Amino acid sequence: MIINTLPLLYFPLPWANLEYYPDSKAFRREIYTHADGHEMEELAMLFHHLFGPLKDKINIYAPSWWDLCLDTWNTQLNVYDYSPEGKSPETAAYLTMLADANIPSDYSGSVRCLGWDEFLNIILRCIISHAAPYSPVFYSEEDQLFFYFHHTGSIGFYYEKESDVVEGILERAAERYEIVSH
After folding, report:
1. What is the rounded CA–CA span in Å between residue 58 and residue 114?
2. If exposure means fewest CB atoms within 10 Å of the residue's CB, which of 35, 69, 72, 157 is most exposed?
3. Which whole number is the average pLDDT over 97-119?
4. Longest Cα–Cα distance in the chain
5. Residue 159: which residues within 8 A CB-CB, separation 6 or more?
6. 64-78, 87-101, 133-147: which range is least confident on average?
7. Burial of 150 from C-beta contacts in 10 A (0-12 / 13-18 / 19+)
8. 129 neighbors 122 (Cβ within 8 angstroms)
9. In angstroms, what CA-CA distances link 13 with 24, 25, 31?
10. Could you report the per-residue pLDDT of 19-47, keeping only the tens digit for each?
11. How far is the C-alpha of 180 from the C-alpha of 73, rounded, in Å?
């Protein structure tokens, strides 16, 4: 099993605006890799480089886990179809991961990752290929921060206030990546 559900059904950072991230009451940074056609590998390395020291404190939130990938919507029948058959390889792997973890089909909430390499391989393929139009939200409640992946090979990084943890993430980011402040 790669992920499992948590009892937390709401997003726990009250300062975050998940409807429109830039309206969050937080500091915002965009961190860009130099992917040039290798976005998936670069984003996985970025995750481990920046967030490796705190990955045991990171959870992942989605408002609708099973609806993340576009091809779960059957446009001919106007219904959702969560079977992996007939889906893109990215969506099929994602749906299989959810089924293997016994994630309820109507689940909205947080999960804990039990296998980061496997999870990143699956979710980044969905994001980079556009099978998923957006990333789930990765967050640390303890450190009051969240981030998401973008198909261009970047992440959006938000935090409520400066801290040693945030400073460490930004220092590691400055070693290898381009940081844009907003």
Report:
1. 11
2. 35
3. 97
4. 52
5. 26, 27, 143, 144, 145, 146, 166
6. 64-78
7. middle
8. no
9. 10, 10, 21
10. 999 999 999 999 999 877 888 999 999 99
11. 35
| Tokens representing residue 113 in the block | 């990752």
> What is the per-residue pLDDT for 39?
87
- What's the token pair of residue 104? 């309820």
3-class secondary structure per residue, the chain:
CCEEECCCCCCCCCCCCCCCHHHCCCEEEEEECCCCCCHHHHHHHHHHHHHHHHHHHCEEEECCHHHCCHHHEECCCCEECCCCCCCCHHHHHHHHHHHHCCCCCCCCEEEEECCHHHHHHHHHHHHHCCCCCCCCEEEECCCCEEEEEECCCEEEEEECCCCHHHHHHHHHHHHHCEEEEC
What number of residues does the chain have? 182
Q: Which residue has the tokens 């915002």?
A: 28
- Strand-pairing partners, residue 156, are 30, 148
Tokens representing 76 are 């001919």
What would the pLDDT profile of 44-81 be if each residue is shown by its tens digit? 999 999 999 999 999 999 999 999 999 999 888 899 99
* Token pair belonging to 81: 């179809």
